[in-house]
């Protein structure tokens, strides 16, 4: 007979049911959308382990499962990180998690982790302490140790258990990238013993648990990778692995992020020691890292980006329409990317172009992209066919009426877009959102051609669409709230992080990029070498420098955007004529293999093209220190960001940080331009801008909001001070 042992009503995140010697431990935190390892959960789990340890009711095996759909355990409670005032606070939290999981691992009975949904960070660490791990093949099932993305290392035994289970290389790869694997890939990596469909998870887990108790079964994970690899046990091999990993980290992060380097140290030192000594090293590192400014900024990025994704910020309560079909007009590179990304999220797509060849080419591009993703996900043949079939090419507007959302991605020309909008409107009825993927044309201008201007909205993707996480949604004064809500829901559904901004030249992302790019061109004009400018900014934390960015986006595109911005903000964004000269010299950047830099036949950048200095008419003889370059470039962008908030282009500082990090690559460890102002201090930022204004003129004039904040001693995020 089943015995249901009730927990006190206030603490009911974990329940245990016992039947015929099997304990099913069910997690479902009523206070949270996902299960997290909070102080409360540690206590409740501890009590359950006490009972199992005491041999309760003849329990012979246990299954650990979640009653929350799509979430197993999302890791430690990141909210609680805000309570860490000292390294000792954080170290103690890590030790509490380690102790719990060591007790779980050392139970006399086998425990099967039955995983459906996210098992991340402390979630995966919990699974690693179980005897056997079964995951479902659901797309919601993700396994990984994403702690580095929060500026910390795994703190509940993961740095020690994972390498011992799957070998050094696989473990380092997972922990240094924070990548998340679905069930099948996790099994290939040796983390998971078995993958099953969700409906049979509990049944299979229960059977396996009893078989383990009867010694009819042994775990298989770890073995499929052949790990721990014998070679990896040899000292020279290990040294090589660590030195390569260290080199990789330095190349990628320039040593700006302490967590990955500390992780390598903890794993290396812990490897030959008893695992308990490894846990000591881990807890210490966790404690020190959790209170660093880098970790605080990265936690800010987690919460702000999650909030941007979940909250469209509408006060009217307007509801989003569900989206199961979209139509994309314009099957170029962007259109194909939008189609592929939508299809991957389970949305049916009509991909239209005027000529059949163009539609077919777009379809090919979309399918190639989808096939690559399917391969990585190890989809079965019928699943791949289903995925590819979701994108249907067309030269007509047939089938458009069944779409809830249209995204036009035709050439950036107002008259063409006007015509396309009218054609679309003739084919669809009321209630279909009309989104434009323009990056330069005001949305209000596009809406002028529309019979239903309240249905018109900007939905600005970044290239390559499959990789870039941001979607900038732009409302004009007449956009209806349900249209905004639906577009926000669409962006979220396809896995993007949206920010919603008001219509204004350059919107937000290009608006703050423009003065930064213009400043880089001015530095060239002053005679600074291109690599010096690029290096200064990668050292500051951007993924690439501004001169490389010119080559990447295309000099003709940058020229056009620069003109629009200088017309709108003439006092601050007068571009130098360098870009004009390069374009006139036939240099378009990477796309024609000729830009500021030289490119090899394989498209790779080979080095600065010295002949550029001749085109510019300047010998590049001036040396400026990194600090001056960084200050001019970073502050001109930060100041512009503050202006957009002040003018109401941005609705919140939160969106400004998310947009700069996810759209431009503003260094995440600096938390975004607004967080940067808070951490530097508005008064200090103001003082530096004033000094620059004196030397270089009005383009550095501080945003009035900064003056006000410095005067009133206020912050953008006072709650995080
Ligand atoms: N802590 C606190 N809140 C969390 C959370 C967490 N770990 N994970 C999610 N939430 C909140 C989130 O803020 C949102 O809140 C809601 O849950 C739904 O999330 C000891 C040190 C799990 C894949 O980094 O990746 O373990 O907006 O909208 O799209 O070594 O959330 O509703 O108020 O994102 O379905 C490591 C972070 C922690 C995982 C779900 N774990 N989370 O995605 O929903 S460090 C992570 C995610 C750690 C150990 C250590 C995703 C998700 P609200 P959501 P989703």
Automatic annotation (TrEMBL):
Q: Report which reactions are catalysed by this protein.
A: a (3S)-3-hydroxyacyl-CoA + NAD(+) = a 3-oxoacyl-CoA + NADH + H(+)
Question: Domain named 3-hydroxyacyl-CoA dehydrogenase NAD binding: which ranges?
Answer: 325-503
Q: Which InterPro entries match?
A: 3-OHacyl-CoA_DH_CS, 3-OHacyl-CoA_DH_NAD-bd, 3HC_DH_C, 6-PGluconate_DH-like_C_sf, ClpP/crotonase-like_dom_sf, Enoyl-CoA_hydra/iso, FA_oxidation_alpha_subunit, NAD(P)-bd_dom_sf
What GO terms are given for molecular function? enoyl-CoA hydratase activity; isomerase activity; long-chain (3S)-3-hydroxyacyl-CoA dehydrogenase (NAD+) activity; NAD+ binding
Keywords, in A-Z order: Fatty acid metabolism, Isomerase, Lipid degradation, Lipid metabolism, Lyase, Multifunctional enzyme, NAD, Oxidoreductase
What the entry lists under PROSITE patterns is as follows: 3HCDH (PS00067)
State the family named in the UniProt similarity comment for this chain: In the central section; belongs to the 3-hydroxyacyl-CoA dehydrogenase family.
Under which EC number(s) is this enzyme classified?
Answer: 4.2.1.17
Q: Does the keyword Transcription apply?
A: no
* UniProt xrefs under Pfam families: 3HCDH, 3HCDH_N, ECH_1
Segments spanning the bilayer are: none
Organism, as annotated: Longimicrobium terrae
Starting at the broadest rank, the lineage of the source organism is: Bacteria, Pseudomonadati, Gemmatimonadota, Longimicrobiia, Longimicrobiales
Q: Which residues form the 3-hydroxyacyl-CoA dehydrogenase C-terminal domain?
A: 506-598
| Source taxon at top rank | Bacteria
The pathway that the record names for this protein is: Lipid metabolism; fatty acid beta-oxidation
Q: Which Gene3D superfamilies match?
A: 1.10.1040.50, 2-enoyl-CoA Hydratase, Chain A, domain 1, NAD(P)-binding Rossmann-like Domain
| Any single biological process term in GO | fatty acid beta-oxidation
Name assigned to this protein: enoyl-CoA hydratase
